[in-house]
């Protein structure tokens, strides 16, 4: 996955921009497995997407769960 400085990175789960804020560690960048590793998801780039730390934590292993936007 290529993430370059100066390019806005959006969360693959909630669709909002991912910002690096010291005051908001849960809003930082995490790498989400679209198919979780526990479901035999691969580490291939096709199975990875950027996400917020908090969104990744909420998603957990539920690929079929819909997270409603505020
Ligand atoms: Zn998010």
Chart the SSEs and their pairings.
Layout: E1 29-33, E2 48-52, H1 53-59
Antiparallel strand pairs: 1-2
Zinc ion binds near residues 13, 14, 16, 52 and 55.
Largest sheet: 2 strands, antiparallel
The count of helical stretches stands at: 1
Give the termini separation.
28 Å
Number of domains: 1
Helix content: 10-25%
Output the structural class: alpha+beta
Give the SSE string. EEH
User: Could you tell me which ligands this complex binds, including any ions or cofactors?
Assistant: zinc ion
Rg over CA atoms: 12 Å
Number of strands: 2
- The shape, in one word, is globular
Low-confidence stretches: none
- Numbering strands along the chain, what is their spatial order in the largest sheet? 1-2
Strand content: 5-15%
Average pLDDT rating: 80
Kindly describe this structure.
By secondary structure, the protein is of the alpha+beta class. It has one domain. It is 10% helix and 14% strand. The termini are far apart. 13% of the residues are buried. The structure holds zinc ion. Zinc ion binds at residues 11, 13-14, 16, 51-52, 55.
């Amino acid at each position: 996955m290529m993430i370059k400085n100066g390019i806005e990175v959006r969360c693959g789960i909630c669709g909002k921009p991912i910002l690096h804020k010291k005051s908001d560690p849960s809003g930082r960048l995490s790498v989400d497995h679209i198919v979780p590793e526990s479901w035999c998801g691969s580490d291939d780039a096709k199975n990875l997407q950027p996400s917020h730390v908090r969104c990744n934590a909420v998603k957990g292993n539920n690929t079929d769960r819909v997270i409603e936007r505020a």
